[in-house]
Amino acid sequence: ITAEKLPKTGWEQGNSVVGGGSPFVFSSKRSECEHELRGKVVWVTGASSGIGEELSYQLAKLGALLAISARREDELQRVKKKCLQISSLSDNDILVLRLDLTDRSSHEAATNSVLKHFGKIDVLVNNGGRSQRSLFVDTNLDVYNAIIELNYLGTISLTKYVLNHMIQRKKGKIVTVSSVMGIMGAPLATGYCASKHALQGFFNSLRTELTDYPEISIIQICPGPVQSQIIQNVFTENLAKSIENSGDQSHKMPTDRCARLTLVSVANDVKEAWISDHPYLAVCYLWQYAPTWAWWLMNRMGKRRIQNFKSGIDADASYSRKRK
Ligand SMILES: NC(=O)c1ccc[n+]([C@@H]2O[C@H](COP(=O)([O-])OP(=O)(O)OC[C@H]3O[C@@H](n4cnc5c(N)ncnc54)[C@H](OP(=O)(O)O)[C@@H]3O)[C@@H](O)[C@H]2O)c1
After folding, report:
1. Less CB within 10 Å around the terminal CB: N or C of the chain?
2. Across the chain, what does the average pLDDT equal?
3. Is the keyword Metal-binding assigned to this protein (predicted)?
């Protein structure tokens, strides 16, 4: 699906593309295809900020019934309140469910709570996660453990319980917000890239185990840089340290654009969607089809990334045009 075929939302550069990780260009069933999500029960993790928050608003407007999860319940209540203001949903249509993805012992009970409330789960959006800004040589191994616990093990643990339910119903969609970092490698994010590569490998394999369930879709969303609280929340060299200055994020793709393209991908069962502005999107294609060039280019871009980070601006700031 090329973004150009979609109705324009907000500002539009026309260069963000939902691709399939293949030379084929998918055509969308209908430009308004996300409306297929009306009345569906959608469970969004990481809904208290950023991409998950925006997905919740757009899903609410589309008339999906929502379970919204994260650790900060007060933030989830704020998101629920806004969802109710902007949609025709009623209080009972949105379940706020506190969930810590790293507390795997709570995932079965959480899944049962959603099922008790709505009777079914049509779509799970595995969105909760944290990134990283630190060099490997400076980083404590505990940080790597925590990233894998959250981004990888937390995600597959929740998936396990929800998938059991979808297998009983013989239908459903498991959507995972991976990253372009699940396709390429980049400095300052060795642990984060590893966790997203792990998710890519896991879900690509899981899909091949579900061939008897053609109505269960495994969908991976790979965004490039998107405006959110991801930098404020990054892992650094040690678990106790947070980032001092998250820097200007205005050069990144607006959250609503990423959420919109995500929902179009979900409605169309796109197996792998790359949602990014250039140059990251071009680098993804290089990484996939001409890795030797990608390694050469990444060595140069990577140096800039580290310099930017060390000088206190966003690591990717100097590659992107500033949004007007
Ligand atoms: N923004 C980007 O540039 C970008 C690019 C590619 C991929 N992504 C991916 O997009 C997803 C959403 O990130 P975002 O950009 O929207 O960042 P964000 O604004 O920081 O949102 C992250 C969400 O994850 C939740 N979360 C963090 N730790 C959690 C835990 N232990 N248990 C449950 N929830 C937890 C946070 O909620 P609480 O703190 O309340 O728990 C928050 O709702 C992530 O998987 C990220 O890797 C982002």
Report:
1. C
2. 89
3. no
Looking at residue 276, its pLDDT comes to 94
Please give the distance, rounded to the nearest whole angstrom, from the Cα atom of residue 117 to the centre of ligand 1.
25
CA distance 139 to 133: 10
CB 235, CB 134: distance < 8 Å: yes
Q: What is the pLDDT of residue 32?
A: 57
Kind and range of the H or E run holding 274: strand 272-276
Per residue in 159-187, pLDDT (tens digit) is 999 999 999 999 999 999 999 999 999 99
Pick from 18, 43, 49 the residue to mutate for probing ligand 1's pocket: most ligand atoms within 8 Å of its CB: 49
Structure pTM?
Answer: 0.92
Instruction: Tell me, rounded to whole angstroms, the distance of Cα 321 from its chain centroid.
Output: 23
Q: Considering only CA atoms, which residue is closest to atom 8 of ligand 1?
A: 179
